[in-house]
Amino acid sequence: MIKRCVQNNRLVYYMRRADNVFWEQHWKKHFSSDIYRRAKHGKLGDFEKPFAKWLPRYGRILEAGCGLGQLVLALRVRGYDVEGVEWAEEIVRTVKKLHPNLPIRVGDVLKLEVPDNYYTGYISLGVMEHYRGGPEPYLKEAYRVLQPGGILLASVPHFHALCRLKARLGFYRDNTEGLEFYQYAFLPYEFCAIVEACGFKILEIFYYDPFKGIRDEIEIPLLRWLLNQRFISRGLARLLNILPYANRLGHMFLVVAQVSK
């Protein structure tokens, strides 16, 4: 059970610590050969537009925290020279059994075993929010391994307008005693300021998954049940993805930034 509260202008989630054991259990739960079906055709889903626009077509690219490796696979199908690092060793072994030639390896994204200025692109999707001390260590390591002019694409959970309204109305006052820090949701301006302080220039922000952004804030059990029905969720998700400004309620936002060095 996730509990949430507001601290220092961030929405803070408490559940259990997102350590190595957590991620191995998480990815085991979601692992299926079916997850690679779209990846084999180079499908990028929510990331189609930002990746096509900003991901370098030349040089090495890293996905830091690649999970099951489906994004690495999809990008390689598209011709990108991309590799992945994941710290859940058992998951990497499982993926390699299914895709032995997929270039993913076990590693710590805070201490990458590559020289400075090694990559032209660095992808981090839903990783940096899980460190209690903040995203700075991830960003500093990304800055180290990126070449001058290299591109960072980093996504984190969004403390969006509906969440902020609920906070003003007195929600998010959960008792978190006995629970461990899980993740932050950020205001875009705060996260962008942190990215800039770590040596990057902000190029663009993309918001995505407004359906989850809205559904997760519904407190009425029957309505939540309805939104979880596949025929409703798929249709509503498609509608929200095309409605103007609906993406500003996106569960996540992706920051595109360029190394300034």
Based on Cα principal axes, name the global outline.
globular
Query: Helix share of residues?
Result: 25-40%
CATH C-level class is Alpha Beta
**Secondary-structure element order, N to C:** EEHHEHEHEEHEHEHEHHHE
Low-confidence stretches: none
Count of DSSP E strands?
10
Structural class: alpha/beta
Q: Tell me about the biggest sheet?
A: 7 strands, mixed
Supply the number of helical segments: 10
Share of β-strand residues = 25-35%
- The averaged pLDDT comes out at 93
CATH topology: Rossmann fold
Task: Give me the CATH superfamily.
Answer: Vaccinia Virus protein VP39
Number of domains: 1
Backbone CA Rg: 18 Å
CATH architecture term: 3-Layer(aba) Sandwich
Chart the SSEs and their pairings.
Elements: E1 3-7, E2 10-15, H1 20-30, H2 48-54, E3 60-64, H3 70-77, E4 81-86, H4 89-98, E5 104-106, E6 119-125, H5 136-145, E7 146-157, H6 161-168, E8 180-185, H7 188-197, E9 200-208, H8 210-215, H9 221-227, H10 230-242, E10 252-259
Parallel strand pairs: 3-4, 3-6, 4-5, 6-7
Antiparallel strand pairs: 1-2, 2-8, 7-10, 9-10
